[in-house]
Every structure is written in C-alpha cells, then in structure tokens.
Amino acid sequence: MPSPATLPVVAGGLAAELAYAFGGPFHFLLPDAFTANLVAMQDALSRSGVDGFVYYAKKANKAAVFVERSAAGGAGVDVASAAELREALGHGVRGEHLMVTGPAKDPVLLRLAVAHRATIAVDALDELDRLISLAPTGGVRPARVLLRALPATQRHSRFGMSESELATALKRCLEAGDAVRMEGFSFHLSGYALQPRANLTARLIDLCADARRQGLEAGRISIGGGLPISYTDAGSWRDFLATQNPAHYHGGKTFRTDDFYPYHSPVAGADALSALLATRPVNTDSTLADQLKDAGIDLLIEPGRALLDQAGATVFTIQGVKRRDGYRILTVDGTSLSLSEQWFNSEYLPDPQLIPRDPAATTGVFPASVGAATCLESDMLTWRKIAFPQPPRAGDLLLYPNTAGYQMDSNESPFHDLPLPPKVVIDQTDRIRPRWRLDRHFA
To answer: What structural domains and CATH numbers belong to the chain?
Structure first.
C-alpha cells in the first residue's frame, strides 16, 4: 500500500553507510517533521480561539529528541512512569508542563509529580486517596488533579471513574482543602471518530460547571490522544480493503479488516483537531470550540502518533532470499518486534521501499514477503506479498516508512541476543547532505 516517500532523506548512500556502521537494522528520526506537526496543532487551537495546550504522548516513541523538541516548542509531555517523568525533566520539560497518566500510579511517581507541580490524571478513588495522603498541606505545593472519566460508550473499560465515582471524588477534593487543586477532567476514547469526542467533552464542560459551583477550580479538560493520521490515499485504502484475501499473504494468512489501523483518514493530524473543534456535540447548536470558549475551559490534548507523522522510518538489510511458488521470502537482519503492529493480530501496511545496491538491476514486478532472522514461524515483518520493482537481493535495504508512531519501540526485545536497533537523528537543516547523530535516550 503506497505511503508518502521518506526515501529522499537517506539519499546519497546515507542509509547504506548507517547499515554498514551499525551492522544491523536502525531507526532514523526526523525531528523537523515532529516540530512542524506540533506547530500545526498549536495553530489549530489558536485559529479556533480556544485556549489549549499540547502534551506529547511519550509512550508513542521513547526517543529523547522528541521530548527536546516538545520543550523547545512550548509543549508538554504525557508520562506514565517515574522513569519517563525523570527523562522528560532531564531533557528540558518543565514540571508544570508534565501530564501524568496511567492506572494505579506508583507512590514514587505520585511524589515526583507533586514535587514538580505536574498535572495528575487520577484514574480511581483509591488513587485519589493515596495522592491526598502524599500531598503537603498548607497550600505550599498542592497536588494538581484532573479526574479521569469513564466514557459512557465504553463502560467495560478498566480506566476512569463513573459519574457516581466522580461525584465522590469531587467531594473528597473539597474535603482535602489546599492539599489538592482540582483543575478539571480527562478522558481517553478508543478509536478515531470525532463526534464521540466532541460529545464527551461537552458533557465534561457541564461537569466543570458543577464542580465550580462547589468551589473547585475545574477549568481544564484533557481529551487524550486519538487524532488519526493518514498513511495513504483514499483510493489505495479502499482498494486494499475491497480486494485483500489470503492469496495475497505468505502461507495464506488471514486478517480481520477491523483489526487494521485506519490507514487512510479524510481529516488527519492538525486538520482532525480543527474538525473536532468545529463539531457540534449532540443536542447542541454551537460548536465545541464555542462551548469551550463560553465556559472558559482550556482544552488539553495528548497526541502521540499524530505528532510523529512522517517523523521517522526503519531500515533493515536483506540477509537472504528464498523462492516460493510465484513469490520470494526475504529474511532481514532484525525482527518484527521492531515493527510493533505485527504483534496485535494485524499488519503494518505501508509498503517497504527497496533500496538496491545495484539500481540498474532488472525491473518488473517481483512479489515478496518479509521474514525476520529468528526461529519463529510467526515472526514476519510483512506477510503480504509486496510487488517490488526490482528483484530483492541479499545486501539490499528495506525502508519501512513512517514508523515513528508506536512502531519502533513499544514491542522491541533483544530476542536471540540481537541488539535493539539504534535511533539515528537526521539533521537536514540548511544542508545539501543530511548529517546524523545518535539519539540521547538515557536507557
């Protein structure tokens, strides 16, 4: 399935040089794309007239350079562990620009969050009680709290509090006095539809009004992430869904189309944020943006994939080629643990790009699937038979585009004692030929 090309970034033999230098697969990062996505989201908030703040969801990619770009761009970072919090601080993010999320947070994480004035999205009543017990009294450094709501449309979710629990939580925030500053509410919705997000945000605007009447601050709502990105055009996505069948995959593999990420979205990234703000919540006559402005509510967003769109790619070297009936099986020098979609009953669908050692080789159509250098039958980077324009050969490179968002490291493992692929930061600023350095991630 075609995807916007990232190949020009590594033109001039840089990809081959890096593959030789590292002796294995590697990820390359494009921080300028991250910054452009961040600026576009901040501009979308400004154009709508809504006061808001962007937090980069660090779980989407562990690289330090994206945290550094967040700090430089006036954004915050969403963290869910003490290690993530410390690393964000170490790479320049101010404590008050941290959003601490996740269930049943460790007391160490809660103490650090309070000490550095981070905002804490409280997931449950017992967590709120723990936080109140840890927060100092006297108003010197109150715990800054958002109460996470359980969406009515996802009642089986293990995250968030029901409306009755939220009512109890508000009462406990009031009883805690100056140990807690209740700043509003948060939620996270599965899927990428905009209307449900607008509807739930409008409901939380009403809850903010109730909390304010009780004497609480309640001036912020975090809608989490879930802004879609578009990896391909509408026609390619429609044709893929209509025609894909087991014959297109190695071993007759089958996938449920519902398990695929929606690789095309008619509005994506910052445009999706603008569309959300222009949406009218159900049973209302005004847009979400107008409702937020009228209520004096700040909108907080925690995008991950949407900030990382086109901000990186992954390169493997082909180690061997095996012929099957009508197609080839390529074995590369890494594993599908570095392409995480494969481990969620799904497939990463953007086509890998072949970077041949011999650009003058025979041209045509040469279908091939891509397997990993492990002993596992299921360890396939690409089950689909990709139509390569040249016959892939040992020593050629495969570049998987647009992998920065969740693909690179959420499932990585040094299986078989294979080293984790390094992350290489590409600097293209004012240079004919890109320069590179290793990312400064601590771990």
So the answer is: 7-30+310-438 (2.40.37.10), 31-230+265-301 (3.20.20.10)
